[in-house]
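User: Predict structure, ligand adenosine-5'-diphosphate.
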Amino acid sequence: MKTNHWIDIAVQTPAHSPVGGLLSYRSPFELQPGQLVRVPFGKREVLGVVWSVQEAAPPDMAASAVRDVLGVLEGLAPLDTAWRQLVQFSAQYYQRSLGEVALSALPPQLRDLSSEQLARRLKKQTDRTLVQAAPGHALSAEQSAVLAQMQMEMQAEPVSGAVTATGGPYLLFGSTGSGKTEVYLQAVQRMLQADPQAQALLMVPEINLTPQLEARVQARFGTDTVVSMHSGMTPAQRLKSWLAAHAGQARIVLGTRMAIFASMPHLKLIVVDEEHDPSYKQQEGARYSARDLAVYRGRLQNAQVLLASATPSLESWHLSRPPEEGGRYVRLQMPSRIGSGEGAGVLPKVRRVDMSKQPRRTVLSAPLLAALQERVERGEQCMLLLNRRGYAPVLHCADCGWKSQCKHCSAFRVFHKIDRTLRCHHCGLTERVPRACPDCGNADIAPIGRGTEQLEEHLGELLAHVRRPDGSPVRIARIDADTTRLKGALESQLASVHSGEVDILVGTQMIAKGHDFRRITLVAAVNPDTALFSSDFRAPERLFALLMQAAGRAGRDASQSAQSEMWVQTFHPKHALFEALKKHDYPAFATSELAERTAADLPPISHQALLRADARTQEAAQALLNAAREALEIQLSSDPATAALVEQVGLYPAVPMSMQRVADVERAQMLLESPSRMALQKVLWHLHAVLHQVRSQPEHKGVIRWLVDVDPQSI
Ligand code: ADP
Ligand code: ZN
Ligand code: ZN
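Assistant: Predicted complex:
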């Protein structure tokens, strides 16, 4: 007699389908958890992951209603328990369906391949590569100490030789240019050479911004050993990388946040470079933090975890406080910049220009201009940062007060002079600049404020007389999201900076990150003050990290680092943030910032989640959130088992989001806050069920969607 097997399978289900989100199927053949299968779903055939195998038919449905598994993807080893646990945890913690998280963690092309196509791909695979690394640098004393500590806590199992990573997670706090990358590369090398199967995951914020790192890793380990994983790859490339990692053939995966879900059965080391970078937080679907998942995954797979930054997130900094104060991460330090020779290896001098002492409306102060001129005449490069692209953030009519408001968003449209358009940076609405004020006909409408495009133009005028050492005029270039829209544009623009064609580079924070510009000796933040008084409590942390990182761009070439400078134009030169910056003193900044967070009960002292609703009207969006809150409070307090949660978790009334309207959708949010992560998670679980109920009530028909953001990065 033919036996049936009852299988729970994860398939791509809609965002908020009930928790768990597994579907029951019947299979005429035996299946194992982690196998990939094709199953019918509605009228379609979809990819699924076998999650568990049941003893008997599911009790709550007629066996006849259960459909059959159609086939198995042959030749693929099942996804291992650790991978499944990672996915399951992520779905639970970030409040999404298991199927959604599982399927979006797989390369999209797996869904479309037939068994024959897959078999062909698999045949192309080569054997696991032996790691033969090109020689690295002779380590500095600080680098050696860090590696020794990690090594000490790594043990080889006597019989199998497999390495068990213990200790950590580590937070490597090292100045820019202290040689952190060299530490990762050598840690990877040691791990892979100690254990012939071991795999390492190297995560970076954005690969496109740091093509040099990719090249450096490949140069060190060989192209067969390393695969990349990021969203800029074609589906075919992504599948190829994924298969290589899954089979254990790729020993190193270099990727962005998505790589945290790579199937790596022999994962032994995870490095998170620039761990403070906000781009580790996914901003749609399951809003996971790849950095936080790295720590979780390390525990699951017994892999060492190394988080690294010159300006760690306050979360990681706080977690790496001394163990006697409750810290759980091991803090490793590399305070010195690598360098050799006279005056080398020094961090740039920070100079603050008090803009209140400059003539009104000054954009570039006289001392900064003079410094730029001097550098250009010496043949050195400079970099100017302004966190606003376009020509001007708003156009304005002085007669009637008209402003270039976007009609779909609560934002102004930005004036782009290059093609004379007004563009909304939120919904994309683009129109030609009107010849006259649309309201009163006044022909004299003027830009207010400035963006990178205007800064570039302005600088060109102010420095028109300046000559390079060879007598040719100064060359200014701009890099921002506008200049790099075309494929390959960023690469060629970066190349022109590296080759020395450009004297002054103007740009947004895009240029502050990671690039190893050897000849830049002066970096200036033109107008960083707005972040000091932002409503987002993380804005100062971001600004400090950005400025420290920007400062790290200056003087990377050891022979010039003695003269390198970081300039800040500010109306608040005595602000604690700039005082700490002047001393390159991240710990001082972190201490004062943490004191403020503690006083205000903000993360990392407390934990937060945001519930967001989108609707046609603000009232409808808020009504859903407030109704959910009331229903939740009643439900929790009526059960003695949950009554305490009401005390432990603060639920705030719904408010409009700071960007209240985008593309004609009104957005509202409700904040949940708790000193206990666990209590917050429990409340979110109850909230999830409540929301399904409330949402189905007729008075909330107008709501378009709701979503939960756990550990949100901006409020
Ligand atoms: P970080 O990642 O901390 O900013 P890097 O690892 O990029 O620093 O190192 C900065 C520079 O110093 C790089 O050019 C690197 O090649 C060089 N470097 C790193 N370690 C050493 C070392 N031990 N000896 C000499 N040069 C080194
Ligand atoms: Zn007007
Ligand atoms: Zn808009």
